[in-house]
Amino acid sequence: MTRRVVITGAGTINAMGADVPATLAGMRAGRSAIGPLDIRDVDRLTIRIGAQVQGYVETERFSRQQITLLDRYAQFALIAAREALDQSGVSLSGEAALRAGVILGTSGGGLGTQDDNYRAVYEDGKNRVHPFVVPKLMNNAAAAHLSMEYGLQGPSFTVATACASSNHAIGQAAQFIRAGLADVMLTGGAEAMLCFGGVKAWEGLRVMSNDTCRPFCATRSGMVQGEGAGIFVLEAYDQARARGAEILAELAGCAMTSDASDIVMPSREGAERAMRGALRDAGLDRLDIGYINAHGTGTAANDRTECAAIGQVFGPLANGLPISSTKAMHGHCIGATGAIELLACIMALRDGVVAPTVNWRESDPECMLDVVPNEARDVTVTACLSNAFAFGGMNAVLALKAA
Amino acid sequence: MTPDMIRPRIHAILAEQAMIPVEEVTDRQSLADLGIDSMGVVEAIFAIEEAFDIAVPFNANEPQASTFDISSVGAIVAAVAELHTQQHQ
């Protein structure tokens, strides 16, 4: 059984904004949400910048009873899912609920909860923690809360492939619908790693920038972490058409590959195989692709490898192909990043606006592609790719078509 | 600390990273000569920071732009001696 899969709802909260319209407006304006980190013990960090969700007050969003069970990453997932389902308008009651599920990506899960409670027992010397620490920190908590909130009784689980988690999750959710295992899937990712322990761990790798994120720029100085969630409603095409739903885009294909070489250094071949595979799976020709949302972390290792891989796959076509990394705006949201970046793909397909690579200053001879520097561009795009290449050499590329 | 006091511990850290006997490490060698790759460099710098209780300025994205000279084993010894003096006055 092979069915077409479409996106009928999108939701987000991230440093660019608390919903999709605010996020897309920020992307159009080329606004970077990277700024000083406002977290406990920031004075003991050497990296003190990030793309943090500002002005977020959890008590305005959730009750005290809910907060005892919801880590920040799960709160973000619930907020984004509400927006996506409101837009979709899909019915999830009765029999439909049995054919609906949730597949989310996350890398750190409830890392903030772990950080807080390790601090309580190790630093503060407490011998007791809150009874719900485990259900709050677990990596499947966000997916579980979405299934509970909306009564989704089909398959639900969490995918963890570091920086590619969301793309793996979205690709997997699409396969469930294609194969007839479900009719509606909530999917995407959520991440909230901007806590002392989370940033301290990243500092150790020496790949973090302490000024800002400048992907594909000769003066780039590394990655900057963000946080947030992106959640989508995937639906079988025939069902969406039958109920007259507005289709945001078709999720036409996906490919997953493994470098099988190094735990942190990316390989050109693995990235290449993933892009070629996504094109093949979607039945698309290279000529059809009008935009690539790059992984574009702003590290030397990623940016050079990714540009080389795009050059290999697209050959001379690569020179005329707009490619951008939106991480310079919303930061690297790790397990949620692919989901938030999918919003830029939907904007390209629906609105004909390609989000820019902001903070860009000068060409890097090893990244000589059209990276849409600093300003959004009006381009008609009928199909695009979204890249995600994770630590562990785990790659997932999504292919989308205009509705 | 003088470079002579620092050198043996630097040699030991790099030898461990390169998985060779410490006698085979000389000041004239580069890290590439020792077979230490970029992640090995990051790990060696961490070991140096711990051993001498110093903070080493180093970004793996732009090793050449770093003020910490890692062009040879001898350069690292000199740089660590200087950082130790600066940070432990």
Description of the molecule:
The complex is a heterodimer of chains A (403) and B (89). Chain A has 403 residues and is an alpha/beta fold. Chain A is built from 15 helices and 14 strands. Chain A folds into two domains: 5-242, Peroxisomal Thiolase, Chain A, domain 1; 253-401, Peroxisomal Thiolase, Chain A, domain 1 (3-Layer(aba) Sandwich), CATH 3.40.47. Chain A has helices at residues 20-29, 58-61, 64-67, 72-88, 95-98, 111-123, 133-137, 141-150, 165-178, 196-204, 237-242, 268-282, 300-314, 327-330, 337-351, and strands at residues 5-14, 35-36, 49-50, 100-105, 156-159, 184-191, 228-236, 249-258, 291-293, 323-324, 353-354, 377-378, 383-390, 394-401. In chain A, the strands form three sheets. Chain A has a ten-stranded mixed beta sheet with strand order 5-4-6-7-1-8-14-13-9-10, with helices on both faces. A two-stranded antiparallel sheet of chain A has the order 2-3. In chain A, α13 links the parallel β9 (291-293) and β10 (323-324). The two termini of chain A are 22 Å apart. Chain B is an all-alpha fold and 89 residues long. The radius of gyration of chain B is 12 Å and the shape is globular. The model of chain B has no long low-confidence stretch (mean pLDDT 93). Chain A binds chain B through residues 46, 204-207, 209, 220-222, 264-265, 298-301, and chain B through 38-39, 42, 45-46, 55, 58-62.
In short:
The complex is a heterodimer of chains A (403) and B (89). Chain A has 403 residues and is α/β, with parallel strands linked by helices.
How would you summarize the topology of this molecule?
The complex is a heterodimer of chains A (403) and B (89).
Chain A: E1 5-14, H1 20-29, E2 35-36, E3 49-50, H2 58-61, H3 64-67, H4 72-88, H5 95-98, E4 100-105, H6 111-123, H7 133-137, H8 141-150, E5 156-159, H9 165-178, E6 184-191, H10 196-204, E7 228-236, H11 237-242, E8 249-258, H12 268-282, E9 291-293, H13 300-314, E10 323-324, H14 327-330, H15 337-351, E11 353-354, E12 377-378, E13 383-390, E14 394-401
Parallel strand pairs in A: 4-5, 4-6, 9-10, 9-13
Antiparallel strand pairs in A: 1-7, 1-8, 2-3, 6-7, 8-14, 11-12, 13-14
Helix pairs in contact in A: 4-8, 12-13
Chain B: H1 3-18, H2 38-52, H3 73-87
